[in-house]
Design brief:
two-stranded antiparallel sheet, mainly alpha, 48% helix, 4 strands
Length: 662
């Protein structure tokens, strides 16, 4: 009898295990697979929009062929490209979310020479053990899915830009008259590269609800930073109309989700979409468009309502779904929220490891002169709170008496929000940045080992670190973590302008409002200094830093270039190429009222000098094309009036916000 009970118990345990397993599978499937009806609608909508773009690209190729053969005119080519771009904008949220690299390099990237994303060698152009030639391989997969080892050979080379932005730049400028052959080649290449993208997305069976809610809100950030600023349309400046198309696209895709909201919320969101598009289509003049009103009254409210929709439907963010540390905070309600970006994405130190106690130790380290070789230099020597954590010098004092460093000291406020550090982008994170300073013979002239030895001989540090880490020995990692903790705390999005945009005050000087609209439009500042960091941290995910060749002069009054080549000499693999000569990191304009003098060399004493430099088109704008042939700043004069410049200054000064040094 006992044996029978044992057998029955074994059977029950097995069956219970199977039942539990099936239950877990069912729950998992319910959690991971979207609603079938919703998914069918979303997929059909996206596939239809992709097909519309492909058809219009085909029409564009035909018109480009006719134009090359002198059978068409400029107007027909311009109208054909405009149709392609408007259709693409309706599905850009999808293509750029799933295949950002392919989209960036082949479909709608900046019209600048760049390093080839997938370099191949001549060896493979002839017979080889692969089925495809390198070019055939590139035209079978989206760039994001290409495997690293195939066909790669030698160092990366610089290639010319392709895609919609380059076409816009040619077709809507005087180049259209002389570049018929190039237009056709670019059109044909666009057709090939978009076809790859379309096929890849057509094969996709599911669009997860958390992905849909994410990429639609990211498109709002793209409209904010790359649409209404003119970044995407360097020739036509048609970004305002295109932004309306982008809104139409994401509303179409969101349709089944908006229908699940309560009726009041649904009507509120539909009205916001309708009114936002109407405002864009009513005010299409690029220079006169009131971006401040559009962002504050339309785009920001829409950004918030789509977040509330996601939460009402109990849909997690992508980061929450996969347990990631994101750069962009998908739970932020406003583009100018203090927590719009996540500082811990940019540091090796993570939020759960940080604490007020660690920050306090980091602060003491920041001001501690004993860290340097001679005990005379601390971090605060070059980064003083009253000067916006800069030092007010043209170039900073060195650790050697009577000597100076080669570059100007940048602010540390919001410095954590960077993918790369230093003006030449040579350091990958905060901890790496500190190592460069520590080991430089012109700065701290020491090593981590020597610093750690000093700390382990100091009773305060030993006791402080023991309380935090429960260890008797301080290592490089605890030291780096404490310093990073303090730098992370030096962030601030709490200026008068931020408060106005968040609705915390209804007062903002008219000159500041005018300056913001100029900054975002006619003055062309926001195409490099992106909202809300107003730096070169690239939206919508803010996970890459840009550098620019502006043609900053060593002696501006003499039109003389210097010998600091910036990124060209940063020692990073594959960056010793001509396009990076005189290329420097695009730093923030927040707190510029406190951080004069300006640029990497501190050669420009005032904001008036800086703005006049931009107004004249950089080095090329004043005739130094031979000296700076690779300038990325447009050489055209901006024709900003004196009152325009005063307004832009007022706006930038309104971004002043120094964090409280607790």
């Amino acid at each position: 009898m006992r044996g029978l009970y044992h057998k029955l118990w074994s059977i029950l345990k097995v069956n219970a295990s199977i039942a539990l397993f099936l239950l877990m599978v069912t729950v998992q499937l319910q959690f991971t697979l979207p609603n079938e009806e919703d998914n069918m609608y979303v997929k059909e909508t996206i596939d239809k929009k992709l097909h519309e773009v492909s058809v219009l690209i085909g029409d564009f190729v035909t018109i480009a062929e006719a134009y090359q053969n002198k059978k068409g005119n400029e107007k027909s080519v311009q109208e054909a490209l405009k149709k392609v771009r408007l259709a693409y904008k309706e599905v850009e949220s999808v293509t750029s979310f799933y295949f950002p690299e392919h989209d960036k390099f082949y479909i709608n990237g900046a019209p600048l020479y760049h390093i080839e994303p997938y370099p191949t060698g001549a060896t493979f152009e002839k017979k080889n053990y692969y089925v495809f030639t390198p070019e055939e391989y590139k035209n079978t997969l989206v760039l994001d899915k290409m495997e690293g080892g195939h066909y790669l050979e030698g160092t990366s080379k610089v290639i010319a830009p392709v895609g919609l932005q380059r076409l816009d730049e040619i077709i809507f400028t005087e180049e259209v008259v002389t570049e018929q052959d190039r237009i056709l080649v670019l059109a044909q290449d666009l057709k090939t590269k978009f076809s790859i993208l379309e096929k890849e997305l057509n094969r996709r069976k599911y669009y997860q609800d958390f992905e849909i809610m994410e990429f639609t809100r990211l498109e709002l950030i793209r409209i904010l930073t790359k649409g209404i600023t003119g970044f995407d349309t360097p020739g036509s400046l048609n970004g305002i109309q295109e932004s309306a198309s982008a809104l139409e696209g994401i509303e179409d895709i969101l349709h089944p989700y908006l229908n699940k909201c309560n009726l009041n919320d649904q009507k509120k969101i539909e009205t916001l979409f309708k009114n936002s598009r109407a405002y864009l289509l009513k005010h299409t003049n690029f220079n006169n468009f009131d971006r401040l009103v559009f962002i504050k009254n339309y785009l920001n409210p829409l950004y918030k309502e789509l977040l509330l929709t996601r939460k009402q439907l109990e849909i997690p963010s992508v980061a929450e779904r996969y347990g990631q540390t994101p750069s962009w905070n998908a739970n932020s309600e406003n583009f100018f929220d203090e927590d719009f970006l996540n500082p811990y994405y940019y540091s090796m130190l993570k939020k759960k490891e940080d604490s007020p106690e660690l920050r306090a130790v980091g602060k003491k380290l920041f001001y501690d002169g004993q860290l340097s070789d001679k005990g005379t230099l601390s971090c605060a020597t070059c980064h003083q709170p009253k000067l916006g954590y800069a030092d007010g010098q043209r170039t900073s004092f060195a650790g050697i008496p009577g000597k100076r460093l080669e570059r100007n000291s940048p602010t540390l406020i919001n410095a954590v929000f960077s993918d790369k550090y230093f003006y030449d982008l040579r350091a990958n994170d905060l901890e790496d940045q500190a190592e460069h300073v520590i080991e430089s013979h012109m700065e701290f002239n020491t090593s981590f080992e020597d610093i750690v030895a000093k700390l382990n001989a100091d009773a305060y540090y030993v006791n402080a670190f023991k309380k935090i880490y429960n260890t008797n020995t301080i290592t490089k990692y605890e030291f780096s973590a404490a310093l990073a903790s303090y730098i992370i705390s030096l962030r601030s999005f709490n200026s008068e302008f931020d408060k106005y945009m968040r609705g915390e005050t209804d007062k903002l000087d008219r000159k500041v409002k005018k300056g913001f609209n100029l900054f975002m439009g006619k003055a062309n500042c926001a195409t490099c200094h992106y909202v809300p960091t107003f730096s070169g941290l690239v939206p919508p995910l803010y996970n890459e830093n840009e550098s620019e060749v502006l043609g900053v002069m060593e002696v501006p009054e003499e039109l003389k270039m210097g010998t600091d080549f910036g990124r060209y000499e940063n020692g990073v693999n594959n960056e010793n190429v001509a396009i990076y000569k005189y290329s420097f990191k695009t730093v923030t304009v927040r707190n510029v009222a406190l951080t004069a003098p300006y640029f990497h060399n501190g050669a420009y004493k005032s904001l008036d000098e800086v703005l006049e430099f931009y107004n004249r088109g950089g080095a090329q704008g004043v005739g130094l094309t031979y000296e700076v042939p690779n300038q990325t700043l447009a050489p055209d004069h901006l024709n900003l009036s004196k009152s325009d410049i005063e307004a832009i200054k007022a706006f930038m000064e309104s971004l002043t916000s120094v964090p409280v040094d607790n």
